[in-house]
Amino acid sequence: VGKEKFHKSQHWGFCNNVRMLVSEDKPGIGGEPLPGQKPKPKYSEYPRGMGSSVPSWVAFDKQVLCFDAYVEDEMPDKSQEKYRIRHYKILFYLEDDTIQVNEPQLKNCGLPQGTFIRRHRIALPPPDEDKFYTVYHFNINIDVVFYGRTFRIYNCDTFTKNFLKKIGVKLNPPGRCPEDPYMKTRRETLDRMKPLRPYESFDTLRQFLEYNRKVLRFFCVWDDSASMFGDRRELVLHYFLCDDTIEIKEVMPPNSGRDATSLFLRRRKLPKFGPPGVFQPGQITDRAVLNVYSGTSGKRVDDYLLDKYKLGKVDQEFYKDGDLFIGATINVWGRKVLLCDCDEFTKTYYKTKYGIENFNSISCKAPPPLKIKRKFPPYNGFGSEEDSLRTCIGLMPTPHQRDFKKFMEKDSYGNISNILRFFAKLITHKCMDLDRMFVISYFLSDDTISVFEPIERNSGFTGGMFLKRSRVKKPGQEVFKSEPSEYIKAEELYIGARVNVNGYLFHLLNADKYTLRYMEENSDKFPMSSIELVLQKLKEEQSKSREVKQVFRDADPEFTKTVDYNTFRDIIMSLTVGKLTEHEFITLVRRYGVSEDTGPDMNVLIAQAHEQLRKNTFENFERLLATCIYEDREKKKVLPTKDIRRLCKSSRLPVTDDLLEIILSGFEDGEKQINYELFFNALNWRMNPMPELEGVSFTKEKCEDKWLGMPSPIPAKRVDYFRLLKEVFGIEEE
């Protein structure tokens, strides 16, 4: 099949800024040349890159030859000049043989300068206008004609010289560019003109470019407390390395009473010896200028010159970075500022530049002021001491504020009373008051004390409240004094202590279980309830261990390892010879006493539950039994305790939680299960009523039954002495 011209590939292109169809000289289909197609030369005609086969646009990419040239233009219309010299730069691009001519811009030239001939291939002057300029047409000290203008090439750069020598062009010696007569005349005129601002260069650009945005930061303090109404003021100093200026900001504490200002010192250079005084205008300047006087001749010329000797100049010394370090005191316009610390960038800067390693900071905080002890007038006897003291504190008297946090923590809630109760006896010489018993209650929430006397029939005393709840002062204090009075604390109350309550002397004989347990739990405040201290006193009698063991064996012939309370008391008291107090002995007995079954009577508990159920008319026991039978899938008539408790809660059984837990524990077996028929039948107050409870009065007989006629209480009837000997003296069983 013959191949015609329509097999050539075509594309759209631009020619003379007009879009047209351009045909490329490419092979036809199959890679074979088309008929009449001429091969296109791949490389330039002149040698490129020492015979390299690489295309010229690749070998000479971004390589340009630069020639210095000038043009002499005639000026026939001006009398000041006959010709003008204009300078040009001729750029020859090796990659495509294009030429560009630029004219450097001159100040106040008045002519359009810049690109004189845009980049393109330039044809040779006639009669060779069908050819273009190549690299071989250029040399030094020759003339080239571009579009009728003759350019005289007088020099070139080093790269151009080397390239021309490399391709075999013999370079002419460089020429000289003539001086423009008009520019010469103008320069002489400018030199004779009076300078308005004499110029002297200061090289600050290098410092600015190197240290721009780099700031040293110091934390400092200005102590102005020596002056009237002065104080210590914390400051932050910024030293700008780019121009050696200093800026100071003040750290304004809250409620300082001073107006907040943006800057303490505006950014500027800080003189070392300031304030220097008042200078005349123009006395402080960077340059010194001299007046030039030419005399009284006809051609009088007034001019100015820079004084290179700078006679009469006022020198000021400013702070530099080398003058700033931790511990230095700088002068900020008469104010002594101490540098106390700096940030990490500042430490790194000084370590790198000056080799400083010690950066121990100085405290910026002011020392605490001396506390002046306030003196109050003595108490005058009107009202309480606290209320009278409030009238001396402020102009508007306010009531005394008690410790609310302590009140909330130690107030009674639930079954925790936070009340220490002691049974006491009145110490007196009156025979009628010897047998009077009292209950002293100490309230931990506000440190108040109340005294109650149990009612006793046919005693001749009314009984009841003996002292209402109030704080009790310690005896022996002056009444009218400035210092606040001291009151009885909880740490001063213990079994065996004697307490003076408003002139009445009480002997503490016993305490309830809650009081003893609270004191043992807080043994750091009540050392007599600390079992560790009691055992330490017993260990001091280590030498009598064999004797003590023999005494306990004689008191226990059946070797039950326990003895009664009185025997144990006699042995321990004789062993310690008065080292143990009554309270410490009670603590020891509570630790090693044999516990007895002191649980409440189940009939009494059920009677209390019946009373609560009767008041709320609760009778849904049949429904509870039916629910238990439904859940008892194995028909064992027992259910877990947690299921019975959940059933009572869901049915809203009107019994208090504490009472319900005690009754459930009474019906619980070893596997934590309860016979639900027995439990709910016992609670059924209709089917199984219980006799009503009788109130128990606190009488002397009941008190004597509890005390058993002893001066000290009996927390346990029998004591495990063997465990005591084992823990204290290390005696093992034989």
UniProtKB/TrEMBL annotation:
Gene Ontology terms: biological process: regulation of neuron projection development
SMART domains: DM10
UniProt subcellular location: Cytoplasm, Cytoskeleton, Flagellum axoneme
SUPFAM superfamilies: EF-hand
GO CC annotations, alphabetized: axonemal microtubule
Location of the DM10 domain: 61-168, 212-354, 416-523
Database matches in Gene3D superfamilies: 2.30.29.170, EF-hand
Pfam families reported in the protein's UniProt record: DM10_dom (PF06565)
UniProtKB keywords: Cell projection, Cilium, Cytoplasm, Cytoskeleton, Flagellum, Repeat
Function summary: Microtubule inner protein (MIP) part of the dynein-decorated doublet microtubules (DMTs) in cilia axoneme, which is required for motile cilia beating.
Quaternary structure and interacting proteins, as annotated: Microtubule inner protein component of sperm flagellar doublet microtubules.
Protein name: EF-hand domain-containing family member C2
Lineage: Eukaryota, Metazoa, Chordata, Craniata, Vertebrata
